[in-house]
Sequence to fold (566 residues):
Amino acid sequence: MTPALALGTYRISGEELAAAARRAASFPGSWIDTAPNYAHGRAHRLLAPVLAENPHVAIATKTGFLTEATARCAHAAGVIAHPEIRHSLNPEYVRWQTDRSRAELGRDPELVFVHNPERQQADLATHLRAAFAVLEERVHAGHLGSYGVATWCGFQEKAFTVQRLDHLAREAAGGDHHLRAIQLPVSLVMDQHFAEALHGTGPITAAAELGWDVHASAPCTAANYPTWPPPRSPNSSAPARRSPPPASRPWRPAPVSRKSSLRPEIRHTGPTPSPRPAPRYPATRSGRSSMYSPPATSTETQRMAEAHQHAAEALGVAAQGPQTWGWQGRTLGRQAVHPEHGRCWLRLLSAPAEKAGGKLWEGTEQAALAFPTVRKPQLVGVYDWTDTAHAYRAELTEFVDEPVLSADPVLREEAELSTAWFSTVRATLATVAAVRTDRIAVRQEWINRAVPQFTGHPAPHIEVWECAHGDLHAANLTTGATLLDWEGWGMAPRGYDAALLVAYSQLAPHTAARMRHELRHLLDTSAGRAATLVVCADLLQSASRGDHPDLTGKLHELVERATQKQ
Fold:
């Protein structure tokens, strides 16, 4: 395999993009990877002068995603049905976008990727074949060199294979074709396809056998390997304490925008984006149940409020808006405004000084490193400190201006969720499940005790463990499919997150049925039924302590259905 590096432009801001491209162009054999929706739709125009100055630089772009402004133009041109569409493989749109990209770039691209085609739920083969036919037409017209498929989870979810793509391209071209490349995530965190290649299987090997290039996205997982896992002090199991960061320079995970390549060529082209644009941070959650309420005493409430204000001053933000309390008042969050990052969310955790650290304490920070491409709030800063009795951690994240499905974990009203929403959730769960970690969300020892006690059935022996969010419910999912609250992630039974989401949704039966149908690949298996049993034991245990008691009857019904199919 022959490695090569390229500049990926997905996570480079518009102001920095041209400078980064000029730097990349100074190296021989340079490639730049971009897309019409990058830099809020400005990437092509920002790159055009750099490409004009450096004709030796090869350029790859994409077709599929639309910004709001592009969608209005496409709708006005009659190539999409309505201006709310944000992804399309309609052949008229593919032709229109490819020509528009050529005009914006000021030159013909060497390569155009069909961008995340797995988002097309209905009749994917027909849409791919039609898109390939348009791109073949553009190759023959001399408007591009070749085309490919850039995917985030299409191979992993078995939406298609390299062999199937080759077959569809042959049908589109009527014989030999110009499909020459695939793009997929490859890194030390998302290593499934690389591991398959080492064993002579998977899409990388299949592409090599056809002589295709392989462009690898998300190669460095936010360029944070040197600090993974977070450092620990030599004489303690707790994380090493950071000194307070300067107010104007809070700690922030460094974004990656490089891409690279193995020959055939895995050309790393910076992270292929998660199926929707990068999020901002959590919607307010007023109206939660008593589970989400201030501490039991006014003294504790005042202590947390004062600590939150101290954290705001240390991180250089102005806290504003209503207070949002976490489970039993153990966390406190508020909107905040940062002079550089704009609207943020400032969340404070507190614990007795001797109990600080561990999975819940470190979860958000470690999730920022482990899941850089998952649709979640981006971590901007972390600030730790200790007083005489308590330890505190403040986490500053970007603000997501999207409402959650419910103010409470239990979904009690039906939700209208689109096919695209479920596609994004499935992609998120697949990405999370692929991560290797020593964090534990659920233990077999707990399963052995809790399942018989709370369900009356024997505990299943879990054979397949996968990484999970660990707290997937309606109060942690937005209408834009952004997933919040990552402190508890870790290894759990396969299908755990899907089972938890369905269980928490039982009081909205139509939505629960839709969720079960959309996640059936995880739930309608022996592993999925075991995960459902474990989840029901967990929630029945919580109900025995006074949380969501109205869910108890539905949980017992789920238990019976899961055990009847064992």
